[in-house]
Amino acid sequence: MYALIDCNTFFASVERVFHPGLKRKPVVVLSNNDGCIVALTSEAKALGLHRGEPIFKVKDIVERNGVSIFSTNMTLYAAMSRRITNIIRRSVQHVENYSIDESFCDLNGYEAHFNLEEMMRSLADRISLWTDIPVSVGVAPTKTLAKIGSKFAKKYKGYRSVCMIDDEPKRRKALELFDLADVWGIGRHTLERLNYYGISTPLEFADKSESWVKTHLTKPGVQTWLELNGHPCIDTSEVYRNQSICTSRSFGDMISDLTQLEASVATFASSCANKLRGQNAGCKTVTVFVQSNRFRDDLPQYCNSASTTLVTSTSDTLEITSAALKALRSIYRPGIMYKKSGVILTDIAPNSPVQQDLFDPIKNRPQRAELMKAIDRINQRFGLKTIQLAVEGEKEQPWKIKCEHRSGNYLTVLDEILEV
DNA sequence: TCTGGGGTCCTAGGACCC
DNA sequence: TCTGGGGTCCTAGGACCC
Questions:
Q1: pLDDT band at residue A135 under the 50/70/90 scheme
Q2: Interface residues, strand C, Cβ cutoff 7 Å
C-alpha cells in the first residue's frame, strides 16, 4: 500500500502559521513578481478567486473583502516542507518527496504490524500539532488511487484526514464519484478524448478493456488505467538527480540594455550552478533564452534561445556563466524591450567520474573546485550573494522582481526570526 | 500599469547507417 | 513500368505534473 500525504493549500497555510490572526480568513499567495494567484485558502476560493488568476484583475474583490496577500517566499515554504518530511521519516522508512507539499510513503510491510488507517491518522495529527500545517492523506494500493483518496480526505471532514481505498467496493465507489479531470495523469487533452468516446467518470475509464486503452491512448494513459485498476506501475525511484536545471524570471521592469540583460543572465546562471553543485553533479550544455513581453502587442516581439556546449562536464560558476553570456550575446538584439530571460542546464551527470578533455583550456580544475566550495561555504554562512560575480551587477536593478508582500524568512534567517 | 516558475516523459519524424 | 528491409540516434513539440 502507498500513502500520499498532501498539505492543504500549502503556501497559504505556511503564511497562516506565522500570522495566526489569519485563521479562517481569506489568504492568497502570489507568483513571482506578484503576478498571479498560486495558492489560496478555501475562504478566498469562496469569494470567487481562482488559482492562476492575475491579481490586478481581481483587485476590487481583494480590497472589498480584506483578503490578505503574500508574495511567494519559497525559502520559507521549503524550510517548512523539510520539517514536515522529517516528521514523516520518523514513522515511515521509505518516503518520496514528490513535490514541495506532497510525499508518497511506501507502506509495504507495515500492514502486518499496524492498522494503516490509525497509523496515518496519528501521523497527520502529529504534523498538525508540531507544525500547524493541515494535511490530507490517501492510502491505496497504487499512487494514483492514493492521490484520489487524499482528495476525498481533504474534501470531507468525516474522514478525519485519512481516506482508505483498500478494497474493491471502496475502489469502485471512489472511481464512480471522482471527477475524471482531477485524476493524476489525465490532462485537458486526454479528458477531451475520453469524453469524445463517451467516458465521463474514472470508473467508466477503468472498466474499459486493456486492448481498447492501448489502441486509443499512449503509454502514460495505459499506466493511469492500470493504476486505477489497482496495479501499481508508477515507479518509486529513491535516488534522484535532475535531468535539467532551470532558473528564469520575468523582470519587474522591462529592459533593453545588453549590460542589464547580462546581469540577469549571469545571476540566473550562477543560481543554476549552485543548484547543480548541491546535487554533486555537472552539466555539459548551457542554454539561454530571452523573451519580450507577449502581452504588449504595441511593442516588437522577439523570443530566442541559444546553447553552448562545454568541453567537459562542470559545475563551475565562472565557466557556466561565461558560456551563458556567450550564448546571450549571440541572440541579443538591440531595440527590443525584454521581459524575461532564463538559463537551462542539461546533459547533467554525476560529478565523478568526469570524462576529461585533452585540450581543456582550464588547467587547474581541482583548485577551481575548491574555490567553488569556499564560495558556497561563505555564502551559506554569511548569506546568499555575500560573494558574487561582478557581472551580476548591483543589488537594485530594474529587472529584479517585485515582491511587496513578502513575509520574513522566519525559519532560516536569524535576523528575521518571528517576534512575539 | 500589472499577466509565474520548474520540472518529467513520450512520440513522431528526420537524418543517417548497412 | 518497376523502386526493400531493418535499424539507430537526435530533436522538437506535446502532454502532463506541481
A1: very high
A2: A 98-102, 147, 183-191, 220
| Residue A385 C-alpha from the chain's centroid | 23
Query: DSSP character for A97?
Result: E
Output the distance from A282 CA to C2 C1' rounded to whole Å: 56
CA to C1' distance (Å), from A184 to C7 = 36
Assess contact for A90 and A27: CB atoms under 8 A: no
Q: Which band of pLDDT confidence, cut at 50, 70 and 90, is reported for residue A288?
A: very high
Residue A85, pLDDT above cutoff 60: yes
Report the nearest residue to nucleotide B7, CA vs C1': A244
Q: Helix (H, G, I), strand (E, B), or coil: what is residue A36?
A: strand
Whether the CB-CB separation of A47 and A61 falls below 8 Å is answered with yes
Confidence check: pLDDT of A310 > 80: yes
* C1'-nearest nucleotide to the CA of A99: C18
For residue A218, give the nucleotide whose C1' atom is nearest its CA. B10
Around Cβ A125, how many Cβ atoms within 10 Å? 14
Residue type, A28: V
DSSP state of A54: B
**Which positions in strand B are less than 7 Å from the protein's CB atoms?**
1-12
Q: Which nucleotide is nearest to A402 (CA to C1')?
A: B2
Which of the nucleotides lies closest to A187 (Cα–C1')?
C16
Dist CA A388 CA A267 (whole Å): 9
Which nucleotide comes closest to A193 if you measure CA to C1'? Answer: C15
Question: How many other CB atoms are found less than 10 A from the CB of residue A246?
Answer: 16
Here the cell at position A220 is 502514460
- Residue A240's pLDDT is 65
Which nucleotides of strand C come closer than 7 angstroms to any CB of the protein? 14-18
Place of cell 490572526: A21
Whether the pLDDT of residue A237 is over 60: the answer is no
Give me the pLDDT at residue A239, please. 58
In residues, how long is chain A?
Answer: 420
Amino acid at A10: F
- Cα–Cα dist A392/A406, whole Å: 23
A228: Cα within 13 Å, side-chain hemisphere: 29
Q: Are A8 and A136 in contact (CB under 8 A)?
A: yes
Q: What pLDDT, in 10s, does the model give residues A167-214?
A: 999 999 999 999 999 999 999 999 999 999 999 999 999 999 999 998
| H or E element at residue A392 | none
Query: CA–CA separation, A149 vs A146, rounded Å?
Result: 5
